[in-house]
Amino acid sequence: MKKLPLVAHLDLKGIQYRPEFYGEYFQNLRDLGYQAVLVEYEDVFPFRAARMSARPEEVWTGEFLRSFLELAAQAEIEVIPLQQCLGHLEYAFRQSENRRYSVPRGELRDLDAVSSEARQWMQGLLAEVMDAHPAARFVHLGMDEAGSFAAHARASGREPLDVFLEYLEELCALCERHGKKPLIWADMLEDHIAPENIERLRTFRDRVVLVPWNYAAGIKPESIVRFSGFRCSRHWLERPQDGPDGVGPIWDDLLFFEDWAPEIKALAADFQISPWLMAPLFQAAIWKRLGFTVWGGAGGSITQDRSILPYYHWRAANIRIWKQTVETHHLDGLIITQWARSNSCTVPNILPDAVWPVLAGVADAEGGVCAFFPGVERVDDLMFQIGKCREDWSLEGTLIREMDERTPSAHAYEWTTLRLLLRVLQISKRIAAAEELTGCYAGIGRLNETAWKTPPLRELRKQLLEIRPEVRKHLETRYHGQALEEWFYKVFSVPLETLDRLEATVAKSIATFNKRQTGTFFHHDDF
User: Which residues constitute the domain of residue 478?
Assistant: First the structure.
């Protein structure tokens, strides 16, 4: 496989490292063979033209930002700043003074790109970010998942992609004046590509790096794809039982392969495995054929992983197909994304420590100069098993014992994080099982103390309370900030609240049974 830019994603809207760790972070990436990091600053960036953060104490100073960039340069890691310029702007629009720039009557996440005033406001912010990165060759503009913008454009009598490309033209010109080449996620183009805009899209091929992303794709052909809208074949409506796995969820406004315009069908024809199945990640190959520089976007960790540990086996499968696609279609780079939250208003996802095995697995195949956990055999197998435990296996106890018996000669801190999180996962799964069992038993007036032997709700509470201070003491040496507190609330307080509710449900059902046994009069309101 050719040497290509291998890029890690640092999403700062989630759980943040302590400042003193960034030097080690960059060196870890360098040791693994990464050349660049895509930094999504969100509201920690020290904007001058607008207030973005409700927590000023967590906004980086200009001095710290410069030291951050110096640390990256010392490790020979190129920094690519990411400034969302269309969607995913919750962090900006939750500040009341910025809301006039958002899509009217839409979600508070998309810029009103129909408005020249809103576009100019965003270009001012983008210019601040570029000015703060004088050595950067690239800047990522985001430009993805802007559904409210698309609806607003249509309501204004415009085609979404027409407005999108007009705005992109302005952004490209701004980036060129700052000596930087922009990257954008490709999904809005994939949503809205049509015969009438193919040639206009081509005019951007030397000005923009496209980053098609797909975090669900594996080696199997895909039955539902994004190209000129989300589409599948009508075959699945007529023969839903076909295929070993059938087809995923089908919704009312899903479009169909059979209705592709001839020009779009011609672009996709070489990648159609059957009338009802497409080759995975074919969109990246199409963009490459159209003359674009294309970097893939793989899922190192995604929102569906939630807050404890990733589905490592899913992440490995996704990265495997992306690497095959890079090689087969001669793509120009690969970004391993790590989404810290689904958006800046939601609960934090997994800790960055939990993603190192994924980053190391990618880099090993790219000629990385060291294993991340030297001296530990079968790391990939262990991570696969942990992922399967998240899905449907229950071997956490075996894996905990196996990990307790091993100590890597480097990165012992990250190894300890994984061990602790695996114990938390085991307790979390047992609480989920207890919740299901409580629902089965807690009928009105049927449950009694003799029947209720499992699950041990109080024992689960004891386990959770015992491990919480151990996890906190460990993590607070590396992480800090409000997002860490939010993570602790999600991972520990919410399950404890669940146990409170389950114990109350069980106690109420047993009390009702006892009333019946003693003949105590009761009303249906008691239930």
Answer: 379-526
